[in-house]
Each structure stands twice: as structure tokens, then as C-alpha cells.
Amino acid sequence: MRRVMFLLAIPVLAVLAACGSSDDGNTTAGSGDARVVEVEMRDIAFAPTAVDVRAGEKVRFVFKNTGQVVHDAFIGDQAAQDEHEKEMRGGHGDHGKGGNAVSVKPGKTEQLTYTFDRPGQILIGCHQPGHYTGGMKATVNIA
To answer: Which domains does the chain have, with CATH numbers?
Structure first.
């Protein structure tokens, strides 16, 4: 009887193991099918400085701030970057509406999931005072 129970338990355990997840629970809602891209936020630089994606691809960016000051990541085309730079210079320090930006304190990590709709090129920019104009930006090439 023990042998029969043991043999019956094997397939049940195999199914349960297959349903498990290695996810640490630290993800953005709905980002389970997204490709993960890790981005280091250094003081006045992103690494990598360019990311290649496909049109229609969902990407979960994991931004790790290894610098000494707060950094942010805003995803948008050049016009959106210019507008966001003006908003941030307005003194609010707020990214406003939309889910295409995160702020990351020194030593912390934040995530942002974004779906790239069409081919082209957009930017990731940090709009803390002087950072974007100092070159803290990365290019996203969408094929």
C-alpha cells in the first residue's frame, strides 16, 4: 500500500513543481511574460547606453542605482524627453501622469515594464537637475 501511495504521489509532485515559480515576487503587475533588461544607474550615466528590442515586445527594466544621488528613468521619444525635462525643471520633481517613469534612490532598485509598439528609436532619460543635459540617457532601438 505504501508503494502504491508513493507511486501515485510522484506525478502529483511533478505537476506541483512545474507550477512553481522562481520569481522573487518583486515584479511589476502583469510583467510575467516580459523580457528582463537590467540597467545600472551610475552618477550621470546609464549602463548599457543602448538596448535593442522588437516592435510589440514587452520589456521589464530593472533599474539599479549604484550612484550617490537619486536618479530617474523616463521612457519616451525626443519630444517627450524635452517636455519632461521642462516639467522636472519646473520644481515639482514629479513625473506626472503615465507609467513610463520611475525614480530610484541611491542603493535601491526599481522596475518599469514597457511595451514598445512600433519600430523606431526612443530614449530613456534621467531628468534630475543637470543629468539629462549632462548625457544621462540611453537609446532603445526598436526593430
So the answer is: 33-142 (2.60.40.420)
